[in-house]
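pinned: reference chain
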Amino acid sequence: MTGAPASATGGSGATPVRGGKLGTAAVNQASLWNIANLLTMARLVLVPGFVVLMFHNGGYDPAWRSFAWAAFAIAMITDLFDGHLARTYNLVTDFGKIADPIADKAIMGAALVCLSYLGDLPWWVTGVILFRELGITVLRFWVIRHGVIPASRGGKLKTLSQGIAVGMYVLALTGPLATLRFWVMAVAVVLTVVTGLDYVRQAVVLRRQGLAAERSAAAQEAVEAAAETPEGAGDVDRVAGTPGARGAAEAER
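pinned: its structure tokens
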């Protein structure tokens, strides 16, 4: 975990932190046991608790399903607050960067698998959502050296619709509400697929731009290295005339 920045611990270079004394105290105490990480840990602990509540008394008891819904709702709410607190009070740590996405996928994955196992949700729906979530995670790592794929509005809407839809399925709903949850889940699945394809497009574009930038930098270094030799002028002309150099120049244009 990265501790509090030096500028936050005193000195003339200290940077003001939103939140007054509370914000300053939070920055000074940034560590593994800060409030943002504690919320993330709580969400991880809620995952097995949610599963136990879901399957208690056969998995179809409305009362226990309500308790399971409460655990799921708390987990989803903490997901909103831990990231906000970490960014606002400079509590971002290595643990949080790793544990937060794991906790998010763990609670959602547990809910989907439980619902499909109990026969409330088709397995193909669970498969599509989990495949998308895991696939996007792998995709982010694939292009991470070229840049970061930012979270889009569509992605945030997808997360919201998934949370609402899964929460409605966790509850033992009947009648019109049971019909409504079907359509909410349908919207969530569509957004899951559409935003997933958009992330793939962004990843491909980002990788192409990164590779073009690398080729341009390599060509520039070659030109500078050639210029330093006794026969610099001739070497520069030869290097500049290579396909790689020409391609880098075209990419920059």
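why pinned: The radius of gyration is 25 Å. Residues 1-29, 247-253 have pLDDT under 50 and may be disordered.
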